[in-house]
Amino acid sequence: ETSGREASGGGTGRAGAARPHLIHRLDKDTSGLVLVAKHAYAAQWFFREQTRGGLKRNYLALAEGDVVTETGYLDWPLAREEGWSIRRLVNGSGQPARTGFQVLEHLSGHTLLNVWLETGRTHQIRAHFSHWGFPLAGDVLYGGGRALAPRQFLHAHRLAFRHPFREREMCFEAALPEDLRMALDKLRDGPGRQNAAPTA
């Protein structure tokens, strides 16, 4: 089950067909925010902004294991794994992929992270952290276990962009859905919690 709110671009039918356009997607079983433009003109504007890095997407991710590097980037090209239609793996001949991260909290055998995308490849966050040796909790496709979370612990919690018509910064946030919040509560109630880092 997914959750969250949809943020829409502004404008009227004069700028193009009054038909919604999905600007980006979420993986199956990833919850959170997506951006939908109201019409073609706004969609083209957002696609250009996305290419220029003007669309900021942040995720909350829970990785299995203790990530000791407090902040940094995972910069590995990704390609479709042979024999799979959806699974991605790090491959030198793949498409460039860059993922930023910051540790928010160390928990018992897990690490809560703020993650952001500088490219938008399929399964980018999940494939990068799995390759690094820290698969996401609940992400069985990439080596995570289901003991704690019923699906991959990945939630698009923050979306920021400049409004295409009003020319002001817009920011939307979505709280963790109940299933992921309960998974965090289980860890926080157990041993091994360390002080949380400041949230970006």
Q: Report the oligomer.
A: single chain
Q: What overall geometry do the principal axes of the alpha carbons give?
A: globular
Q: Point out poorly predicted stretches.
A: 1-16, 196-200
Work out the radius of gyration: 18 Å
Describe the structure in your own words:
This protein is an alpha+beta fold. 16% of the residues lie in helices and 32% in strands. The protein has 3 helices and 12 strands, in the order E-E-E-E-H-E-E-E-E-E-E-H-E-E-H. The chain has helices at 40-52, 124-132, 178-188, and strands at 6-8, 21-22, 31-32, 34-37, 56-64, 71-75, 78-80, 88-90, 98-107, 110-117, 154-162, 169-173. The strands form 3 sheets. Strands 3, 5, 6, 9, 10, 11 and 12 form a 7-stranded mixed β-sheet that branches. The chain starts with 5 loop residues before the first strand and ends in a 12-residue tail after the last helix.
